[in-house]
Each structure stands twice: as C-alpha cells, then as structure tokens.
Design a protein that fits this description.
disordered N terminus; two-stranded parallel ribbon; disordered C terminus; seven-stranded mixed beta sheet; 243 residues; Glycerol-3-phosphate (1)-acyltransferase; 9 strands; globular; single chain; alpha/beta
Length: 243
C-alpha cells in the first residue's frame, strides 16, 4: 500500500525543489522582472509537465504562488483526501476537468459545479488579497503519469476560458487590476529535463481575449532561444540560469 506523508510535513516549495532536483539538468527562467513586487497577478502558462511546470515557477519566483490544480485524476479515496488536504494547506484552488470525469476518477460528474464555484470563489479571494495565481488553460500536460491527452511533446490543446472569469470576478466592484503575464515553457530531454521558462510582458486590457493570450503563450514557448517578450518585440530577457 502506498503511504502519503501528512500534509503539514511537505510544503509546496519543498515538493517542488525535490522534483527539480531529481528530474532536471538545468532550469533557465527569463522575465522574472516582469512579476510585480506586490498586487494581484495571474500567470497564464503552457502545460507541458504535470509536476515541473509549477515547480519551476514556485521555486524561481520570489513571491508565493497559488496553483489552480485539477484533481480529477485521483483514482482512490485516499489519493483524493490527501491531495485535497495538501491543496487546502497551500491555498491551491481545486478544479475538475469534465472529460476526465468520464473515466477512472474517484470524483463524480455531479460534483463538477460545486468545485467550479468553489475555485472561482477561492481565486477571487486570492487575487483580491494581492496574491499570485498560476493557471494552465490547456487543462492537460504533455507529460502526465495518468496518461496524456496530447499526441506528442509538441502538441497543444486550445485554451479554456475559465481563467478570464476569475480575472473578471477579482476586478469587479472596484477590485484592483490584475497583472496578467503569459508564461511559455520549452523542454529538452537527455538523461534529465532541461527547462527554459519565459515570462512575458504584462498584457494590457486590449490584449486580454482568449486568442491573444494563447498566442502570446505559444510564442514564448516555441520562439528560439534568446527571443524577446510576449509579442517578441520587447527587449531581450536577461536569463537567470539555475543549477
């Protein structure tokens, strides 16, 4: 029987550091200076690796990050209870992805609405409190132990619009404007992963439609090394190489 440690013994940063230490050869993060020192931020990222995408940002950005986590992959009640406790301790909003609920998930389809509403409330609360929230609008990573819904490492799923609702709710009725930052990931694999993350320029209100945000994240993910910002028209990022 697989044993899970008590939620209080492993924090998000410790788990993230462990993942990077055991699975990566190098990590490069460009554009960290685009993350403001204070105020609400939403990081909108490509989803390539089920663990390492979040680990890179949690450990390489100075501010605490709250990840919107899909837990519908949980296949046993024990997994569900342990992961929900971990997410609550870290203040990670939980969502359920509708397609997965038709498979082996321990969650039921009639729980979808309840979890969606709770995630909207939680992300609104976090953003209104001036926190940083990370979302993966593709929903599914390319590398996933539960089985990927993508064909290969270059495949891409269309962005789902739920994160735009989160931003709108946080800004409603006088809430502070949310800084929206696109984040691209580029992975290469030898014995271990080499990861290059790019954090783009803040997107203005006129750039906050689904297609424009997805296009920015795509450009950051697939542009050659050394390319510039979200629209590839800003100054070249100063890379910070780790390990």
């Amino acid at each position: 029987m697989k044993l899970y440690p008590p939620p209080g013994q492993l924090g998000p940063r410790a788990i993230a550091e462990w993942g990077l230490r055991t699975q990566t050869a190098s990590v490069v993060v460009d554009g960290r200076e685009h993350v403001p020192a204070r105020g609400p931020v939403m990081l909108v990222a490509r989803h390539f690796h089920h663990l390492l995408d979040g680990a890179v940002l949690v450990t390489r950005i100075a501010r605490p990050i709250h990840i919107v986590v899909g837990l519908d992959w949980a296949a046993t009640p024990r997994q569900r209870v342990w992961m929900e406790r971990m997410c609550r301790a870290a203040e990670y909003p939980i969502v359920l992805r509708r397609p997965t609920l038709d498979g082996s998930s321990v969650y039921r389809r009639d729980e979808l609405v309840r979890y969606t509403r709770a995630a909207l409330r939680e992300t609104t609360r976090l953003l209104r409190a001036g926190r940083v929230v990370l979302v993966f609008p593709e929903g599914y990573p390319n590398v996933d132990p539960s089985g990927s819904r993508k064909r290969d490492g270059a495949d891409w799923l269309p962005f789902e619009p739920g994160f735009l609702k989160m931003i709108a709710l946080a800004e409603r009725d006088g809430g502070a404007e949310v800084t929206v930052l696109p984040v691209g990931f580029r992975y290469e694999r030898a014995a271990r992963w080499s990861i290059h993350a790019r954090i783009g320029w803040p997107l203005g209100r006129e750039e906050r439609d689904l297609a424009a945000i997805e296009a920015s994240v795509r450009r950051l993910s697939f542009a050659p090394a050394g390319a510039a910002g979200a629209g590839l028209d800003g100054p070249v990022f100063a890379a910070s190489r780790v390990r």
